[in-house]
Amino acid sequence: MSSPAPDSPSSSSEDARRHAAASLAAGDPTGWFETLYAASRAGQAVVPWDVAEPSARLRALGLPDGAGLRALIVGCGPGRDAEYVASRGYATTAFDISATAIDLARERHPDSPVTYVVADLLDPPVAWRHGFDLVLESNNVQALPSAIRAAAVPAISGFVAPGGTLIVLAAATTRIDSDGSGPPWPLTRDEIDAFAVGGLRQVSVEQVNAAGTALPARWQPVYRR
């Protein structure tokens, strides 16, 4: 089965919401990533963001050459964005809380230079603190309920090395805002500003319009330490 485009309304979004709802009801706000990937691998669900091409917004940024620099991809899934960043020359580490997602990334990219790791954003390796010249957070925080975002946001900011850059790609609005169902749950401007902690400063905040999609407006801020 081919995966739908991540911004297109489809039953795959319902699969994600169903697994998220079950996980949240069980008191596990992040466990649904693994159950969704495992169900997808068994042919019982579709992961809406599991597509072949790297993020269009990431490609549009025009990343500079990364030779000699280290990058970290937060919540990498099967690796589409991680592979793109590595192709720009960065020594890339990519992690996901889902072991199945990491298995898929390794299987799909057997000759990849990317280091794929199973890790929890809320309890990351200590060695990663201030360890990366480029950190990409793409659409992960928007999949977390507000109760744990307060821990997730500074954890991401803490990965950025002195002189390094953090890029955040996230929903600002969705078609489902009216009833509050999700994921995704769009980030507010205050939540976007909250990434600028611990010496990280906000360089720019752009809101990109994508009319006619399930995510009609997206945040695209950049931060540097």
Automatic annotation (TrEMBL):
InterPro entries: Methyltransf_25 (IPR041698), SAM-dependent_MTases_sf (IPR029063), TPMT (IPR008854). Residues 1-21 are annotated as: Disordered. GO terms for molecular function: methyltransferase activity. Coiled coil: none annotated. The keyword rRNA-binding does not apply. One of its GO terms (biological process) is methylation. Residues 72-164 form the Methyltransferase domain. Keywords: Methyltransferase, S-adenosyl-L-methionine, Transferase. Pfam families: Methyltransf_25. Residues 1-13 have a biased composition (Low complexity). The keyword S-adenosyl-L-methionine applies. This is Methyltransferase type 12.
